[in-house]
Amino acid sequence: MPSTVIRDRRAWLVAPALALLLAAFVYPVFWLLLRSASDPVWGFHNYATALSEAIYLKVLWNTVAISGATTIFCLLFGYPMAYTMVHAGPAARRILIYIVLIPFWTSILVRTFAWLVLLQPKGLINDILLGIGLIARPLELIYNRTGVLIGMVQILLPFMVFPLFSVLSRIDGSYMKAAANLGAPPLPAFFRVYLPLSLPGVFTGCMLVFIISLGYFITPALLGGRRDIMVAQLIQEQIDQFGDWGLSAALAMILLAGTALIFTLAHKVFGVKPAIRA
Amino acid sequence: MKPEHDTKPDEPGEIILELRQVSKRFGDVTAVDEVSLRIARGEFITFLGPSGSGKTTTLMIVAGFLKASGGGILLDGKPLDPLPPYKRDIGMVFQHYALFPHMTVAQNIAFPLQMRKLPKDEIAGRVKHALDLVGLPDHGMRRPAQLSGGQQQRVALARAMVFNPRVLLMDEPLGALDKKLREQMQIEIMRIHRNIEATILYVTHDQEEALVMSDRIAVFNHGRIVQVDTAEKIYDAPATPFIADFVGESNFLSGRAADIAGGIARLDGVDGVDRESPLRGWCGAGCVSGAPAVMVVRPERINIAPDSSAAPVAENSIAGRVSDIIYLGQARKYIVDTAHGVEFSALQQSRAGDAIDMPVGTAVRLSWRAEDAVILKDQ
Ligand SMILES: Nc1ncnc2c1ncn2[C@@H]1O[C@H](COP(=O)(O)OP(=O)(O)OP(=O)(O)O)[C@@H](O)[C@H]1O
Ligand SMILES: [Mg+2]
């Protein structure tokens, strides 16, 4: 059949991406899996260590908690932002898109260092707040959870805003008109009609931010304190300082499995298809 | 031109909705231009007009989605303008239905009742009743996407009327349906209108739909209402040549009105019509002796016969030659090039043999009675 032939030929278009994925993802993952179960001897002892010793559990929990909080803050800031972008005039929309995008084009390292400058005790933010007399002593904005969250939320916000923007801009305005016409004041209309229709965007945005957060490294390393270590830092430390490839590989596999699990669960619970597929 | 009869209700009965010189400007465009209209309780009134004539804009102002640039609206005698859309208690069926895709049919219909905080069991009862009314008793648990276009239309209707709105607005609700389904839904909507005694403001640019469904029709053109009347009056006594042309089909002859007597006028100045057989029609809107005027005749009121035959059957008559014959099933339409250089169309019930009688090229005589023609002011 001609259509099958065409489809078969088109399949080659995905070959380069597929090759890259195999070389850069499937192979390393397989290698890690092997390493985690064989270093230094065969068995599940690396996993047992990672999931039983308090300091590793603490780091795993940190990772989930920081990622969760980052996701929630990104949603809280990103939703109104995306909403405004969708409902602004064309000129204002373009400006807002650039406001979200420009930091996105800047290196994460540069942005993280910028936050370092802004947030430190003698940084711009504390200077201003002290200057206008709003606070008496400098706020501790850095080397703690607050610093990590500020940095991560700012850096990951675009991953929330753009999926939301794409979904919100496809919500037909007549739904909200219909809701108002049927007697729904603005807030009930939002929660009963607009929000449910925007859930695919919320889902995709949260998924992206959460999953990227799980593996985050530079920002927590620079802006966080000892108590805010995340899995990626731990892995780096284990390899760099102790050369413990087995435990590191196990931690990496746990991270990967957790991510996959969350993705599947969320998919099942919300029953929403990620907006990217639409 | 501004016919004065557009402000006084032709229908008796209590006025529920009144538009007072409502205007809407978008920059330089005047979408709605001093529209005044009084609608009686229980009335079915249709806005009919060409694309861009301001029908939707007027409806949106009534629903509260647009703010009028001038004028005001009274609902039950109270100004409507300060109320936001959700407090107006005006139902609306949107052109593309706007059914909430994430809710079932029953949830969609329950929505306006929940917003009015009715008790649960009453909501259930009214949802069921509304579904019965639109003939979808077993479709409550479906999603809108699982319904056909006609079924979605019914659900939209059920949702818009379940809360007994004071006025029901419909913007081309049948526009997306095919002809058969459209006709079926027209009857359905008329039946529901009678059952629930709702006041309905209906928008269409399908003149047949307007003629079939409405108690009264408001004809829009360039943002203005040019005539408000019953279907019969609009058809038989159009206020302007534009209306005659837009509603149904018409033939036009331009000339000058003269010799007005007993409501009948003569049309002078049409080339080739001799003094012995003057054209007469009754004197309609803006028909003044000596003023430029247009005679309007409906194709089905014209008798067509071969020129060779005996005397014409009606007093108005002009000669011509058949240039085309269009077979319409129940009738035949003859396109005739008249001696005045105007094209006329005459409709004749299909009878076997007609076409052979007067094939293309036949010299024919068109004739019609004076009472079947109306003479209007030339625009
Ligand atoms: N938001 C707007 N901004 C600018 N002009 C508008 C806007 N809405 C409508 N118009 C203009 O107002 C005029 C009336 O539009 P409206 O939608 O009321 O026409 P309509 O009678 O409903 O036509 P249709 O039969 O095509 O639906 C048109 O010329 C239209 O271009
Ligand atoms: Mg319209």
Description:
The complex is a heterodimer of chains A (about 280) and B (about 375). Chain A has a single domain (about 45-275), classed as MetI-like fold. Helices cover about 80% and strands about 0% of the residues of chain A. Chain A is built from 13 helices and no strands. With about 375 residues, chain B is an alpha+beta fold. Chain B folds into two domains: about 5-240, P-loop containing nucleotide triphosphate hydrolases (Rossmann fold, 3-Layer(aba) Sandwich); about 250-375, RNA polymerase II/Efflux pump adaptor protein, barrel-sandwich hybrid domain (OB fold (Dihydrolipoamide Acetyltransferase, E2P), Beta Barrel), CATH 2.40.50. Helix content of chain B is about 25%, strand content about 35%. Chain B has helices at about 55-65, 105-115, 120-135, 150-160, 180-195, 205-215, 230-235, 240-245, 355; strands at about 15-25, 30-40, 45-50, 70-75, 80, 90-95, 165-170, 200-205, 215-220, 225-230, 250-260, 265-270, 280-285, 290-295, 305, 315-325, 330-340, 345-350, 365-370, 375. In chain B, the strands form four sheets. In chain B, strands 6-7-8-3-9-10 form a six-stranded mixed beta sheet, with helices on both faces. The longest helix of chain B has 18 residues, at about 180-195. The radius of gyration of chain B is 25 Å and the shape is elongated. The N and C termini of chain B lie close together (about 10 Å). The interface of A and B includes residues 183 and 188 of A. Adenosine-5'-triphosphate binds near residues 29, 52, 53, 54 and 56 of chain B.
- CATH-assigned homologous superfamily of chain A: MetI-like
Number of domains of chain A: 1
Largest interface: A-B, 19 and 26 residues
Instruction: Give me the count of strands of chain B.
Output: 20
